[in-house]
């Protein structure tokens, strides 16, 4: 995949920006707690405001990319991030909270742009492997970004760390703008000159099925993190939570690489259902070592599931609306992350720590079944410019 002209440069710039974006809420939490000396609840509100802005803006920025082009959107969003992150160390809480929401609304759309470019730069036969590589990249950002920010903020000062996070976002977005990767193939670009298809023509039951599974996947992943902490706290081993999370991340990277090398795809609903079933019994592990071992199967299935979701969206969306479609996917995944922790937390409070794993896994299984039913109910025809979503 990296031998495809322009792919290595795109993935490098994307990795830089996505690592910083993954860590941006952590940087704000550390700033509010350490620099402003406020509560974790106050810090969580700022992080939630930024995340909510990102979730809302996904399809809006994607639609702007479809209509105005990549560089126009990148210029606006990169400028907004420069203004926000250079100002963070000088803001009080009353200003930071609404400004974080605005910064989220104007976050550089690195993830959706990367996915659009992958769809345009690869052949249908290469696409599954390319999206597996993109999912592996996502796992690496979660392994690197928050850990580096926590380490630096605790050992130096959270203000300069916020500057560093902002600088990485801006640098990554600017590099993608300079690269200006194609977002459509030559044939798709010619088709784009025609009228834009109405939303009802492509946002049909199959696309809704994929978006439902996108929500289910990240709801599951968001719930696992909280369940790990709760389960290990109950056994007095909460300090080992980082080891379990690392095992999940590393095995996900391995799973993504293996899946990308496979010659036959697997349906999204099947991968998600297997991931949910593998998650449910994690709460039965008696200590952190067994939990690490039990997490291997779930980890191996994580990146492949995320990859098939991205592949299915790219196949179902006509080229002229691919920006909006990938933006909807990003919003769906952000919504799932926001839902996962409260869902697992409620299950833990009502039952036992193991209930968090059960709730997270069940959310994945239910989303997989709903996705299967919706994908079988093929309302309408495949829109012009889209390909049949065999992997959905």
Automatic annotation (TrEMBL):
Keyword Transmembrane helix assigned: yes
Topology of the protein relative to the lipid bilayer: Multi-pass membrane protein
Lineage of origin: Bacteria, Bacillati, Actinomycetota, Actinomycetes, Glycomycetales
Domain Major facilitator superfamily (MFS) profile: start-end pairs: 165-392
Residues spanning the signal sequence: 1-17
Alphabetically ordered keywords of this record: Membrane, Signal, Transmembrane, Transmembrane helix
InterPro entries per record: MFS (IPR011701), MFS_dom (IPR020846), MFS_trans_sf (IPR036259)
Subcellular location field: Cell membrane
GO (cellular component) term, any one: plasma membrane
Organism encoding this protein: Glycomyces sambucus
Protein's recorded name: Predicted arabinose efflux permease, MFS family
PANTHER family xref list: MAJOR FACILITATOR SUPERFAMILY (MFS) PROFILE DOMAIN-CONTAINING PROTEIN, PTHR23542
TM stretches of this protein: 38-62, 69-87, 93-110, 131-154, 160-179, 208-232, 238-259, 266-282, 354-374
Organism domain of life: Bacteria
Pfam families in the record: MFS_1
Keyword presence, Lipid biosynthesis: no
A GO molecular-function descriptor: transmembrane transporter activity
């Amino acid at each position: 995949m990296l031998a495809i002209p322009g792919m290595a440069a795109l993935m490098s710039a994307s990795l830089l920006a996505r690592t910083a974006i993954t860590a941006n809420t952590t940087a704000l939490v550390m700033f509010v707690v350490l620099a402003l000396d406020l509560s974790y609840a106050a810090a969580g509100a700022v992080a939630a405001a930024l995340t909510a802005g990102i979730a809302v803006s996904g399809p809006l920025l994607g639609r702007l990319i479809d209509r105005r082009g990549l560089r126009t959107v990148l210029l606006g969003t990169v400028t907004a991030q420069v203004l926000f992150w250079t100002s963070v160390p000088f803001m009080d809480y009353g200003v930071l909270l609404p400004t974080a929401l605005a910064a989220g609304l104007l976050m550089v759309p690195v993830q959706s742009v990367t996915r659009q470019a992958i769809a345009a730069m690869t052949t249908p036969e290469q696409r599954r492997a390319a999206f597996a590589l993109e999912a592996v990249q996502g796992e690496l950002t979660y392994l690197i970004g928050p850990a580096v920010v926590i380490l630096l903020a605790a050992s130096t000062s959270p203000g300069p760390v916020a500057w560093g996070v902002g600088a990485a976002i801006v640098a990554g977005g600017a590099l993608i703008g300079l690269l200006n990767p194609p977002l459509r193939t030559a044939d798709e670009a010619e088709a784009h000159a025609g009228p834009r298809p109405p939303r009802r023509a492509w946002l049909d039951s199959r696309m809704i099925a994929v978006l439902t599974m996108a929500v289910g996947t990240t709801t599951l992943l968001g719930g696992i993190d909280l369940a790990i902490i709760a389960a290990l706290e109950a056994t007095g081993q909460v300090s080992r939570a980082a080891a379990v999370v690392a095992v999940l991340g590393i095995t996900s990277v391995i799973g993504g690489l293996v899946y990308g090398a496979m010659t036959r795809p697997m349906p999204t609903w099947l991968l998600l259902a297997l991931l949910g079933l593998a998650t449910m019994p994690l709460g039965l592990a008696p200590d952190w070592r067994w939990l690490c071992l039990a997490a291997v199967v779930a980890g191996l299935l994580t990146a492949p599931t995320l990859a098939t979701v991205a592949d299915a969206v790219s196949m179902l969306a006509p080229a002229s609306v691919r920006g909006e479609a990938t933006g909807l996917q990003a919003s769906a995944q952000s919504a799932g992350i926001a839902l996962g922790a409260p869902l697992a937390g409620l299950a833990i409070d009502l039952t036992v720590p193991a209930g968090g794993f059960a709730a997270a896994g069940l959310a994945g299984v239910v989303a997989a079944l709903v996705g299967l039913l919706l994908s079988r109910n093929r309302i309408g025809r495949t829109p012009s410019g889209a390909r049949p979503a065999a992997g959905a």
